User: What shape does this take?
Amino acid sequence: MKLKVIAKNDNQEVLNDIISKIRDLINYKNLEPGEKLPSERMLSEKFDVSRSSIREAIQKLEFYGLLKSIPQSGTFVANIGTIGMNGMIDGILSLKDPDFKSLVQTRILLELETARLAATTRNKKDLEQIKEALDAFNEKVLKGEDAVQEDLLFHLAIAQASGNSTLNSLMLIITPEIITNFEKYHVCDKNQAFLGIQEHTNIYEAIKNKKPQVAKQKMKDHFKMLYQYCYSGKEE
Assistant: This one.
């Protein structure tokens, strides 16, 4: 376990160092938006690191919209501007891995809005997918089986029904970490799972009946117990 932590920390330090050097290179060469970075091979040789580490650093900067890679063409500086670029990279370098508490807070904020939007924009297919996920969750709970994954699939179906690709993408990004930590922190006991059947049904009905504010409130009600449970000191 300690070896894994050390390896992860070392890798993060390498990535941060590469990102800092890419920023310095952009500033030193005064690269304008749309101008091309040196190739991965050249950066690897210049920074004395592996090409895979260069690729990982570039992918991270791409994720935040600071670089853009075009197949067969190369990697280009995004249209951000020097001041914005430097400020965002400073922010990226100061990021820490999200803890479970922050993940849950983010999830709650996202899901209140996805529920409201889903009740406004959902179509017949969206509703069918939400209902299918709801039935799968109910079946697992009534059998006394773990239903964490089915629970999150229900919420992801709502995010997709929201029609907002950015909210949907953010939900997809944080979901794997939440699944991992639910078991670690024993968030859901059997009583909460049974309560979830009714709460999920209330959310589904509000979305089905196209009642945005009711859907948002029912989602808020659904997260009340989770919020209290997670912040009761158990996670700390």
Q: What stands out?
A: The CA atoms of residues 35 and 76 lie 5 Å apart.
